[in-house]
Design brief:
- It is elongated and about 60 Å long.
- The chain starts with a helix and ends with a helix.
- Helix 1 packs across helix 3, helix 4 packs parallel to helix 9 and helix 6 packs across helix 8.
- It is mostly helical.
């Protein structure tokens, strides 16, 4: 993949996120019309296909309505209709703590359920993801994708579709924080990499043993340690 191709893939996301922030922060209000495609192209220095893709993503999230021949308008939304975490500043300790608290609540409960409900196939997938993280570490890669897949495979093993839906909704914020966390571990605290992986191993062992209480403890320890590591990086 060329640099220009990779850039074209990420630009619609970045533009959609920027416009989404303006909507969430009320700088753009319900009923407001967005600038024309031409004006947005000039504002973000991109082509029309990129702007159209960004607008399509906003439409899929219910943030805008596209009226053919008229324009793109901010929609009126009932706050009870959906739950969304706005982009957070990774350097804001309170915001990070709140998001980590939510992630921990969901994942600790999911890990306990997974230990009680997992099938043999679920366990194989969790183990495959664990090995994927080990391979990423051995290959000197960040391993954030593998980390996310490991925890997601545990959520799948709950066999509760609502846990899966909420986990997927948290994906973007969680993945950004995990990437930041693992990047700091890799560049500043290489001595902690083995400890992090040992925490993942303890979670797997408890699920493999079908021990919900041990799985809950292992998941809680891992996520509490993850928050402590993140706070340490923020201080430094």
């Amino acid at each position: 993949m060329t640099d220009s191709t990779a850039e074209s893939i990420h630009l619609p996301d970045e533009i959609a996120q920027e416009l989404g922030r303006l909507i969430q922060s009320k700088q753009l209000l319900a009923g407001d019309r967005l600038p024309s495609e031409r004006d947005l192209c000039e504002q973000f220095s991109v082509s029309r296909p990129v702007i159209r893709e960004a607008l399509s993503r906003l439409k899929s999230e219910g943030l805008v309505a596209i009226r053919r021949g008229v324009g793109v308008f901010i929609t009126e939304r009932d706050p009870r209709e959906g739950f969304k975490i706005a982009e957070i500043d990774i350097d804001q300790r309170l915001s990070v703590s709140h998001v980590m608290e939510l992630i921990a609540t969901v994942e600790v409960a999911a890990t306990r359920l997974a230990a009680a409900r997992r099938s043999a196939d679920d366990l194989k997938q969790i183990r495959r993801c664990l090995l994927g993280m080990e391979y990423a570490i051995a290959s000197d890669r960040l391993g954030d994708e593998e980390d996310y897949e490991f925890h997601q495979s545990i959520v799948v093993a709950t066999h509760n579709p609502y846990f899966l839906t909420l986990s997927q909704h948290l994906e973007h914020t969680a993945r950004k924080m995990i990437r930041h966390l693992r990047s700091n571990t890799k560049t500043r605290h290489t001595n902690l990499i083995e400890a992090v992986q040992a925490e993942h191993q303890a979670i797997f062992n408890a699920i493999a043993a079908s021990d919900p209480a041990a799985a809950e403890r292992a998941a809680r320890d891992h996520l509490e340690n993850a928050e402590r590591r993140l706070v340490k990086y923020m201080k430094s």
